[in-house]
Write a structure and sequence with these properties.
Number of helices: 9
Radius of gyration: 28 Å
Helix content: 25-40%
Order of helices and strands: HHEEEEEEEEHHHEEEHHEEEHH
Structural class: alpha+beta
Number of domains: 2
Number of strands: 14
Strand content: 25-35%
Length: about 300
Amino acid sequence: MKISDLINEQKTFLTDQLGEGLMQLAQACDSCLDKELSFDHLNELLFSYMQHHQYTRLAYVLDTSGIQMSANISKEAILPEFKGRDLSDRPFFNAVDEQHPIYISNTYISRTSLKPCISMVHSICHNDQFVALLVFDLELEKLPLPKQDINLDDWRQIKGDPEIRSNLFNQTRANSAMDKSIDTVHNIAVELLNELGAFHLKLHYASSRATIWTIDNPYNYHVHVLEEITSPDICLLYPKKKYPVDAKVTQEQVKDVFGKFKHMRFMDDNLYLKTASLNIMNGTIGLSFSCDGNHYLSVEDFLENFEDTYA
């Protein structure tokens, strides 16, 4: 599933969780506006609601021209000086009408708190006529969002520095110290991933070093220079572990991947692999090339499409 799909799922969840309460408040605001408009009454209604809504940072009401009809209402105070602001340029202003009564904005950084926020907007209708907008600014960090399994299932290409790309054919690959021992390095890398508890390993071919993350200590990484990563003695540092049953990469695929990395390192004098990483738990490969471009893709896609894409 793509990142955009996961974000839309979270917005749908928020609509399901908060939409009914927002609708009820919009109806209460309609009752308030049905009478001779009482600025104080509207503010008191919003302020009362805010005391019981733990996720909302700010609430206010706009008319159909985008002019603020209420004060800014927080949990702490009613701020009447904000009445009369023209907010018709807000992205959500034209997103709500009789047919589309509720809208959730994209996330933005609050100008006052400097924290990520999101706005929920609900139409206020009177006799089926759209008369106003009820706006909630929600603090993202306080929302009861469900945990999402963010797994990469699409191939991503990220272009690098344009200056480096423009000089691609003015440079040639120089054999690094790791290149001269690449088979040994790859054999040790496979051993670390398959037998010794490493779950994420990145090889920096040009600078001859490796970065390793282990299952026992996932929040810290270890950097090994060439002399360490080419010596089997490094295996003494990492006790043997059972291969994770929930790994998304098989042990045979691990071996196959490093064989492909070797081909990509030597495939061309101008366009060649500079760094490569493999994470067996999320099944992701990261590739960085001499043109400063980067590819991120699943192991399955990498192996299945290798001949067409990289060979």
